[in-house]
Amino acid sequence: MRTRRANLLLFFSLLASSPLLALSSGPPYSCDASDPSTKTYAFCKASLPIEQRVQDLVSRLNLNEKISQLGDDSPAIPRLGVPAFKWWTEALHGMAYGGKGSIHWSFSGIFKATSFPQVITTAASFNPQLWYKIGEAISTEARGIYNNGQLEGLTLWGPNVNLFRDPRWGRGQETPGEDPLHASKYATMYIRGLQGDSFEGGQAKALKTSACCKHFTAYDLEKWGSASRYTFNAVVTAQDLEDTFQPPFKSCVQDGHASCLMCPFNRVNGVAPCGDYNFLTKIAKEQWGLDGYIASDCDAVGVMVGMYAGTPENASAVALKAGMDVDCGTHLQKYSASALGKKMITEADIDRALRNQFAIRMRLGLFDGNPLQQQKYGSIGKDKVCAKEHQDLALQAALEGIVLLKNTANILPLSKAKVSSLAVIGPNANNASILIGNYQGPPCISVTPLDALRNYVSDTKYVAGCSSTACNSGIAVNQAAQLASSLDYVVLFMGLSLDQEREDFDRSDLLLPGSQQDLITNVAKVAKNPVILVLLCGGPVDVSFAKTNPKIGAILWAGYPGQAGGPAIAQVLFGEYNPGGKLPVTWYPKDYTTQVPMTNMNMRADSATKYPGRTYRFYQGETVFPFGYGLSYSNYSHEFVSTAKTTLKLQGLKTSPATNLYEINQIRSKECQNLNFKTTVKVTNHGSTQGRKPVLLFLRWPNETNGRPRKQLIDFTSVLLKAGETAQVGFAVSPCEHLSRATKEGKRVIDTGSHFLMVEEKEIEITVA
């Protein structure tokens, strides 16, 4: 089971502070120029097409050697000079612990790496350039570690682009949030950065590192009630699959040109994705054009035995026949020979998997001789790991991801000159590890929020209030209240930690844990000034009590802001940075968890059953804070200043004369391109402070019949504006993509009639004839 990953994460975290592994002499590679046999192998000739080189290598392998390569831990083939390769390396928001290919951390070599904010925090910036730069920095550090002989794989298993469908999901923090367009754009930019592509995307064949989008598809439940990710059958409608669950993975492949997809444990409509020929081969490889490999989640093939496939040999056969290429685990290595003997698979099935595998290794340059001597990335040294520019980028990402949720009477920003004493309260204030989130590595620096605030106010005093984020022991409300009443200002650091949300663990409710609410309320009651509440958490929490309490003057959400989170929070609190982040998920009231089972995958509301729907696109209830919400120290205005087209005439075939629908697949590609137009929005910063402003462009329909979303994000960008400055932001609108919706049958259609483009409170009508 995937608990093997949890055990390995623990092992590597202990390793980082233990007697350490010896460094190898250099990075592993094939086709050593000093070996005379290299000249005789076509697979070593970099001038030949990769397809030809791969075919030559696979043809030289005997059956045992072939089968040995099917797992994530692929052993060496000494007779051909092929070293071992470890496929499983984690790099969700920085080079991380865990995975057989992950770093051999060593105090005599590299023992730290830049820890960027957790993905949910970075996503709140709505800044594609930032996401690209983070991917670029992580891949640079990966190459530096590899070149130093401390990394055995350059296949990085990230990003996680499953949608944050349910607010209780323990792994929601790993994702860009709940919106498919937002997640798609994040995936595209992050992948381009990881793989060495340009920001605009040139589909470079050579790879700096290989990115893998996970978990394809409809995976967003860990352990809830009796439901487990290992046995859960996600029942998903064709409509939801088309417009919600699949778009991020399609963008991974077609826009980001990801070189890998990972399939999960669960079933989707009764079929395990790792054994689904339709998903893996027909859709991913044939329709979308995946140029790469498909990996299983760890031990997902073995999980199929009891859940779906019946026997170990059949699980192997189903996975290989479906189009899976790398088994994270040993199942295929153990049972493929037996499946072959029983004629459940052919050697050609194995060869296909190996061709996809070795093509990636060759695109990484691992069959071109010593990378330190002759390759594009061979000059990247260990000095690039924790480089200043990367640590500066981590700070920028943390700053841009912080969301200001409340600021009554402009209590923020605080003034260093006017704050003579400061009380810092809460279990999350003095624990730097909480800032990092899961799938983490050892950060370059470690600064708690408490330490950061002490740099601003010398008279800063601290009380934890309770012993941990669970806040069910060591509760010291009276001590915290006494401190709060004696000092000028109070900042409370509350929220969640990996004890409440993580892989293999979902939350049961949306409340702050234990006695946190009582602690906050009692401290606020006696404080001299309205208190400031800082929330560190990945998933949303119901803080309605704080939103409506006048004694709580400000609320900040910082997610899990990474190694620079402490300084970033302090800079925002004291006005050195003007917050501009926007929530990438809906914050629901606590009653949502009693209305909606996690196991109900339906996105759309159903009035007959009083099912309220999911995410801002379909949810019909009240929110604590909506998707896209976020305040600033500046006030901004928006205005549509030009739109090239306001009436669109289509020549495609309607589904029937009475329906007033145009089917996208009936509209010629050229005609779709001719419909494209640009719209320009004027944005003005009316404040006295420079600020970065995310500008979100939505589409809404006149009504929500036939499963139409309430509104739909169709594009966004981020613009930096000086005080008083105005900028014009242009958006390219592609009606066949942005104005279309999914029918119940999963077909894309455009409705005739009115469509409305929206930015904040402004909108403009587009008519389709």
Automatic annotation (TrEMBL):
Signal sequence, renumbered to the chain: 1-22
Ranges for domain Fibronectin type III-like: 693-763
Gene3D superfamilies: Glycoside hydrolase family 3 C-terminal domain (3.40.50.1700), Glycoside hydrolase, family 3, N-terminal domain (3.20.20.300), Immunoglobulins (2.60.40.10)
One GO term of the biological process aspect: arabinan catabolic process
Keyword Hydrolase on entry: yes
Keyword terms: Glycosidase, Hydrolase, Signal
Family stated for the protein in its record: Belongs to the glycosyl hydrolase 3 family.
The protein's name: Glycosyl hydrolase family protein
